[in-house]
TrEMBL record:
Residues 2-55 form the Cadherin-like domain. Residues 79-93 have a biased composition (Polar residues). This is Cadherin-like domain-containing protein. Residues 79-101 are annotated as: Disordered. It holds the Pfam family Cadherin_5. InterPro entries: Cadherin_5 (IPR041690). The lineage of its organism: Bacteria, Pseudomonadati, Pseudomonadota, Gammaproteobacteria, Vibrionales.
Length: 101
């Protein structure tokens, strides 16, 4: 009966799934060759071993962050500017009007 011990990786995390398999998660934004070292024990002797994992690069989804409140200072909107809200200041505070366009 063989057991695997002291599993280590230089570029990610290995998790023992408890069923004889491991799950590897590379470091964030890593691609390239990963060296995995471990010891194999047969109950009598332990020998060191290693394996290599080739991590291929992937294209990350682009991220766009826009503030939820945008202020546009203008009194001259062209017709057809659908999607904009008009906010005006009155003596009682701010009031939001209808969609412009």
């Amino acid at each position: 009966n063989l057991t695997v011990e002291n599993v280590a990786s230089d570029s990610g995390t290995l998790v023992d799934n408890g069923d004889g398999t491991y799950t590897f998660a590379p470091n964030e934004n890593f691609d390239g060759n990963v060296n995995v070292t471990f010891d194999v024990n047969d109950g009598t002797a332990t020998v060191p071993a290693e394996a290599n994992i080739d991590v291929q690069s992937v294209v990350d989804m682009p991220e766009l962050s826009i503030a939820s409140d945008l202020v546009i200072a203008s009194d001259n909107f062209e017709s057809g500017s659908n999607g904009w809200n008009a906010t005006t200041e009155s003596s009682h505070g701010f009031e939001t009007g209808d969609m412009l366009g």
